[in-house]
């Protein structure tokens, strides 16, 4: 009896004088939903935890209503969106949660100045973050049995659909499987988009304590987990404030479900002014290597992949070589849509690197100095070291770069607090980074390393899970030598696992740094060794894995000796390439060296989102774009 009273009083105390909300979670159990599976529930709880980490309640109040749209109407039963309006409650007291309404009118009816109004026959879907101490025993057992992810330190989401009867009584039911799928997409989208809201300082009356925001409408692509996907891996989630801002769907044979915004002026996709900078943006003729401006250059009309200075060179090259590969090049160019990362909200075209960096305010600053040729005269690894992390990231806003701190309270399947990542969207969400931040362009290197060691190579993953050290031989570092602050993220991601010893070997390592060791946090240390890998490998600790990022296997003859060594040692080795063309060249070199490609060519989920351009070609190229492996 005492235990029962303690539980009942705890529930009452949690709710007493609570303000907006319909009370704590009703005790519904997602396992009772027809057709649901444990992986589906785990994905929902991870999405809820990701939303909680972004703390929308810090700025948002129940009076801030948002329009929401997930995919197209035809994606849902009844050819209609299940919910069209959401609000966050708990920012000014009471239950912490997310409410979803069938219409904006329903949301307005239920939103009072201090309390949530019980309107008869109006349904509201709730995601209520209940304290662990006041959860129903049945829900506690459910959470423990599935090892579901905690939100914050001690809260778990309870998801139900509430309805007030004409007598004022509240009734609750479990959401349907489709409603739960909708909730997942909204939580993932909201966690990424609400930080982009800009306060409108001129709209609020002087006496008002409520924050006003500028009109807002943004779309982000959310990746469905495998258990939720229905033909499409991505779905477009659009959130607007205030609700009711217009949308227009364009139906085509394409499978995309991204809605097109028509209530705002079309945003410029690139920051490059072709006319004013045509003299700066020089290309190189594929045949005669003559420099030519972009405006004066000629491209193959069939594949659009190759650049020429004139139609004369184009015709000659067609006869000599291009005719045999034009079809292949066209197929490579058609992958542009697939490889582009559309989740980011900044210009991802760096045809003129200096102009791109200037548009972001980071040109010739911090680690970004290696992203253009302005510091080519300074040897790799010897850029002047700025004062602190803020300077290293080029003076980006405090919320736009990862701080030197762990990932707080991250638990996956109850095993440990280690972080296993599947892509940029998950990383940005965990770090609460806005999608306007360009840090993925530099973080592509350390996160590709982490992804290979924890997702692709089973032996290294097992060593890390056993709290042991993994030795990595990293061949051919260049710009990475000046990006050591970014490599600190590997240590934070390793929280709860073992250590990584990275030995960077290559001719670009400065002589005065060769032989030095630096600790990057408590779980990562880096050794620098100058020289060719085949000459130095015998003096190094035996590796568990070998890597080379943006390797350019077909561009350097010195790779021959390194590949012979990799073949003889039979150590798993992974390579990345910037484009499909360079990847094809790498495959030829590997096969010529007698190496079997055991991990096939695959797009890297942690490739840079910033497209780079060759001097003579237009192939879709991104740093660390494609992965392949041998001896795996």
UniProtKB/TrEMBL annotation:
Tell me what organism the protein belongs to: Nicotiana tabacum
Q: Where would I find the MYND-type domain in this sequence?
A: 285-326
The entry's protein name is Zinc finger MYND domain-containing protein 15-like
- Which Pfam families does the annotation name? MSS51_C, zf-MYND
Show the Gene3D superfamilies listed in the entry. 6.10.140.2220
Domain of life, per the record? Eukaryota
Protein's UniProt keywords contain Zinc-finger: yes
- Which SUPFAM superfamilies does the entry mention? HIT/MYND zinc finger-like
Q: Which UniProt keywords apply?
A: Metal-binding, Zinc, Zinc-finger
Would I find Acetylation among this entry's keywords? no
Give any GO molecular function from the UniProt entry: zinc ion binding
InterPro entries (UniProt xref): Mss51-like_C, Znf_MYND
């Amino acid at each position: 009896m005492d235990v029962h009273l303690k539980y009942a009083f705890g529930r009452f105390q949690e709710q007493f004088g609570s303000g907006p909300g319909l009370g704590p979670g009703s005790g519904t159990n997602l396992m009772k939903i027809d057709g649901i599976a444990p992986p589906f529930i785990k994905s929902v709880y991870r999405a809820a935890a990701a939303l909680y980490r972004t703390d929308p309640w810090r700025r948002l109040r129940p009076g801030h209503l948002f329009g929401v749209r997930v995919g197209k109407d035809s994606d849902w039963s009844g050819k209609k969106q299940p919910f069209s309006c959401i609000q966050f409650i708990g920012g000014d007291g009471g239950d912490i949660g997310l409410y979803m309404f069938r219409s904006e009118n329903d949301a307005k009816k239920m939103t009072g100045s201090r309390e949530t109004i019980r309107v008869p026959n109006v349904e509201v879907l709730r995601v209520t973050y209940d304290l662990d101490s006041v959860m129903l025993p049945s829900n506690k057992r459910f959470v423990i049995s599935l090892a579901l992810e905690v939100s914050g330190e001690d809260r778990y989401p309870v998801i139900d659909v509430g309805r007030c009867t004409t007598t004022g009584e509240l009734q609750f039911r479990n959401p349907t499987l489709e409603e739960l799928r909708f909730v997942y997409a909204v939580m993932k989208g909201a966690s990424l988009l609400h930080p982009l809201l800009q306060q409108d300082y001129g709209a609020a009356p002087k006496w008002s304590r409520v924050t006003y925001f500028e009109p807002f409408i943004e779309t982000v692509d959310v990746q469905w987990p495998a258990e939720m996907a229905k033909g499409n891996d991505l779905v477009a989630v659009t959130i607007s404030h205030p609700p009711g801002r217009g949308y227009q769907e364009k139906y085509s044979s394409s499978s995309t479900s991204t809605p097109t915004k028509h209530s705002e002026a079309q945003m410029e996709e690139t920051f490059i002014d072709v006319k004013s900078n045509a003299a700066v943006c020089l290309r190189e003729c594929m045949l005669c290597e003559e420099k030519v401006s972009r405006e004066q250059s000629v491209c193959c009309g069939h594949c659009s992949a190759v650049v020429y200075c004139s139609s004369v060179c184009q015709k000659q090259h067609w006869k000599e070589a291009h005719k045999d590969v034009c079809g292949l090049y066209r197929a490579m160019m058609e992958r542009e849509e697939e490889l582009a990362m559309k989740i980011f909200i900044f210009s991802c075209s760096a045809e003129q690197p200096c102009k791109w960096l200037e548009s972001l305010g980071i040109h010739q600053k911090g680690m970004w100095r290696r992203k253009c040729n302005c510091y080519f005269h300074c040897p790799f690894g010897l850029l002047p070291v700025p004062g602190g992390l803020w300077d290293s990231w080029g003076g980006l806003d405090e919320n736009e770069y990862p701080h030197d701190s762990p990932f707080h309270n991250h638990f996956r399947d109850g095993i440990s607090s280690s972080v296993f990542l599947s892509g940029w969207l998950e990383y940005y969400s965990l770090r609460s980074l806005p999608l306007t931040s360009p840090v993925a362009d530099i973080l592509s290197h350390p996160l590709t390393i982490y992804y290979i060691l924890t997702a692709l190579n089973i032996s290294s993953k097992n060593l890390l899970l056993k709290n042991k050290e993994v030795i990595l031989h990293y061949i051919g570092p260049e710009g990475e030598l000046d990006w050591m602050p970014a490599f600190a993220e590997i240590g934070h991601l390793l929280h709860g696992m073992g250590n990584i010893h990275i030995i960077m070997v290559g001719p670009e390592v400065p002589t005065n740094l060769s032989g030095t060791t630096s600790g990057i946090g408590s779980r990562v240390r880096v050794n620098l060794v100058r020289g060719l890998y085949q000459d130095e490998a015998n003096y190094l600790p035996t590796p568990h894995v070998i890597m080379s990022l943006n390797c350019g296997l077909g561009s350097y003859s010195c790779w021959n000796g390194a590949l012979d060594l990799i073949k003889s040692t039979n150590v798993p080795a992974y390579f990345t390439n910037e484009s499909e063309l360079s990847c094809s060249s790498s495959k030829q070199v590997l096969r010529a060296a007698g190496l079997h490609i055991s991990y096939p060519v695959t797009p890297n989920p942690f490739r840079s989102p910033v497209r780079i351009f060759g001097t003579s070609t237009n192939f879709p190229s991104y740093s660390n774009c494609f992965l392949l492996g041998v001896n795996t």
